[in-house]
Structures are given as structure tokens and as C-alpha cells.
Write a structure and sequence with these properties.
166 residues; two-stranded antiparallel sheet; mainly alpha; 6 helices
């Protein structure tokens, strides 16, 4: 049987999750861990977008997908497992937007140049390297909404049958 793009994206998402876990346990700069977080969650979302039930063809080729897709997938998952009182998705949506902004091409119209891959100039003209930057998102991942986001995304990645990927 021929492998679909959806299946290939979920396999790569699993690999990126494994790299994120390794980096999360390391002493390397935060930007490396967050880079793999962003790649993992983007590929998880793209697995859904490339599935037969996926939608929004224009999103398949962009990096700005986590905030648009992952909260929907989490909500569908919670409904599927029968959460009677599903948590508020607002803080999860906010975190997903911050994940999108980690990519250098998603810079909020130039107002958020900081990213996990490339140096950028600040308003004063100083160059900043991702390895020296303090990303507030890293601390937010340890708060309740961040832990919930990571747990749900991990389940959706480790159990792709929960996603309509084939």
C-alpha cells in the first residue's frame, strides 16, 4: 500500500516529538527545544490537513497552522473521549499562536521578529541570536494550559488513529 502524505507527516511528527523530548532533558539553549516543539506541532496539524477529512488546502503549504488547527483537533479529541467538562481552549489557542510565532516566517507583520532559527535585529538595530533569547513560551509550557496542550498533542501524535489521517 502506498504511503499517504498524512501518514508521512504523522511519522515525522513522531520523530520531532522524540527530538523535542531529548532536547527538553538537555542543557542546550531553549531555542533548540522550542524549534522542535514548533516543527512537531506543525507536522501534527499537517497530518490532519493532508488526511481525507482534512480541509483548508491553502494551509497545507504554510507554517502558520498550529493556532488554526491544533485547538480544533484537541477539542475533537476531548469530545471523542467524553470529557464532560472540557477545559477552556482560550489559553491553549494563545499558546498555539505563540508556537506559530516561533517560526521565522510567521512574524506578525514584522512586530515579532524573534524566532528559534535565525538571528534578527531589534528596534535598536542590535542583532539577537535565538540561543541568547529568553522565550516566554518556554515557561508557559509548565503552567496548566501548557501541560494540557503538550499532553493532548502527545496523545494525538502517539495515537494517530485518533486523527483522521488515512
Amino acid at each position: 500500500m502506498k504511503k499517504t502524505r498524512a501518514r508521512a507527516f504523522i511519522e515525522q511528527a513522531k520523530s520531532d516529538l522524540a527530538a523535542y523530548r531529548l532536547l527538553n532533558a538537555s542543557t542546550l539553549p531553549t531555542c533548540h527545544r522550542l524549534h522542535y516543539l514548533q516543527m512537531w506541532l506543525e507536522k501534527l496539524c499537517k497530518a490532519h490537513l493532508w488526511s481525507p477529512n482534512g480541509s483548508a488546502d491553502e494551509l497545507r503549504m504554510t507554517h502558520n497552522v498550529v493556532a488554526k488547527i491544533l485547538p480544533q483537533l484537541i477539542n475533537q479529541y476531548w469530545r471523542r473521549i467524553g470529557f464532560a467538562d472540557r477545559p477552556d481552549l482560550t489559553p491553549i489557542r494563545e499558546l498555539c499562536r505563540e508556537v506559530d510565532l516561533l517560526h521565522p516566517q510567521v512574524d506578525a507583520g514584522g512586530s515579532r521578529p524573534e524566532n528559534v532559527e535565525y538571528p534578527w535585529l531589534d528596534n535598536g538595530g542590535d542583532a539577537n541570536a535565538p540561543t541568547d533569547w529568553s522565550f516566554p513560551l518556554a515557561a508557559r509550557l509548565h503552567q496548566p494550559a501548557g501541560r494540557l496542550l503538550l499532553k493532548a498533542a502527545t496523545v494525538l501524535t502517539d495515537t494517530p488513529l485518533l486523527l483522521p489521517v488515512e
